[in-house]
């Protein structure tokens, strides 16, 4: 599995960005995809996740109502549409893949970084005030 995240950049508060994550490796045994973020000096924070079929989506507290996750199974890709961005959204955003069917079913598990088997390299999102 090789995850390639893109779409980060610099945006003003109130603006939008769309992150993309492409999985160029095997996906037949993988379950969900998602996003974490990490701001300087802070722990990694769960942002959002989506099930393999795309029918179930999950959001962290900071993402609810502003971010939307989606996926394209045909392209082995996931997307994170981020609207109404705030300076506190500034972070490196990591695409992740879960290899277990139970990861997304548990609120604690899906919010825990070590629950995910694969991580992308991260893409920087900077929101200016």
Overview features:
4-stranded antiparallel β-sheet
Element layout with pairings:
Layout: E1 3-6, E2 9-12, E3 17-23, E4 32-38, E5 45-50, E6 57-59, E7 67-72, E8 77-82, E9 91-98, H1 107-110, E10 118-119, E11 123-128
Parallel strand pairs: 2-11
Antiparallel strand pairs: 1-3, 3-8, 4-5, 4-9, 5-6, 7-8, 9-10, 9-11
Describe this structure in words.
The protein is mostly beta strands and 129 residues long. The protein contains 1 helix and 11 strands. The chain has one helix spanning 107-110, and strands at residues 3-6, 9-12, 17-23, 32-38, 45-50, 57-59, 67-72, 77-82, 91-98, 118-119, 123-128. Strand 5 (45-50) and strand 6 (57-59) form a beta hairpin. The relative contact order is 0.31. The model has no long low-confidence stretch (mean pLDDT 92).
Helix content: under 10%
SSE succession: EEEEEEEEEHEE
What is the tally of helical segments?
Answer: 1
Low-confidence stretches: none
Backbone CA Rg: 13 Å
* DSSP strand tally: 11
Main β sheet profile: 7 strands, mixed
Alpha-beta content class: mainly beta
Distance, first to last CA: 37 Å
Overall pLDDT metric: 92
State the shape: globular
Binned strand content: over 45%
């Amino acid at each position: 599995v090789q995850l390639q995240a893109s779409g980060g950049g610099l945006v003003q508060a109130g603006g939008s960005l769309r992150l993309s994550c492409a999985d160029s490796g095997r996906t037949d045994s993988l379950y969900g995809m998602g996003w974490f973020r990490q701001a300087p000096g802070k722990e990694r924070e769960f942002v959002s996740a989506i099930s393999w079929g795309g029918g179930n989506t999950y959001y962290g507290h900071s993402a609810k109502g502003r971010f939307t996750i989606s996926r394209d199974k045909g392209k082995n890709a996931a997307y994170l549409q981020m609207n109404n961005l705030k300076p506190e959204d500034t972070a490196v955003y990591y695409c992740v893949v879960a290899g277990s069917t139970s990861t997304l079913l548990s609120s604690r598990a899906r919010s825990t970084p070590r629950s995910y088997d694969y991580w992308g390299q991260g893409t920087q999102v900077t929101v200016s005030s």
